[in-house]
Design a protein that fits this description.
The chain is of the alpha+beta class and 114 residues long. The protein has three helices and five strands. Helix 3 links the parallel strand 3 and strand 4. Helix 1 packs antiparallel against helix 2. The radius of gyration is 16 Å and the shape is globular. The two termini are 23 Å apart.
Length: 114
């Protein structure tokens, strides 16, 4: 899927909206892109992973892909599968039970992550 077709599909699915929006930073925007929507559209999720892969510099070295909770997790999952790279998820909140790990997934100190 081309970038243009991807953007059109985002609009068709309601992931891109036009109007008056206040962003998390407090600034105003005439549009809003909600990538959380794409979890309901496997074709978009797959296309996003390919498009993201195209913009990662070839010289970029990394051993793992990190999915930031919560919106970044499905995107990182798709990219991880596409690039065949292991994934990590940092916990958003500390757990008082189970293993209490702050990071989900296997890694070694010093691993470079994307």
């Amino acid at each position: 899927m081309t970038k243009q077709n991807f953007i059109i599909r985002l609009f068709e699915t309601g992931a891109i909206k036009f109007g008056e929006f206040t962003l998390k930073s407090g600034t105003s925007s005439p549009f809003y892109i909600n990538l959380r929507q794409i979890v309901s559209y496997p074709d978009l999720l797959e296309s996003l992973s390919k498009l993201l892969s195209d913009v990662i510099p070839e010289k970029q070295t990394y051993k793992r892909i990190v999915g930031v909770p919560y919106a970044g997790i499905p995107i990182a999952s798709a990219l991880s599968l596409y690039k065949r790279k292991p994934m990590l998820i940092p916990r958003k909140e500390e757990k008082a039970y189970g293993s209490k790990d702050a990071i989900i997934g296997e890694f070694e100190q010093g691993d470079e992550c994307l």
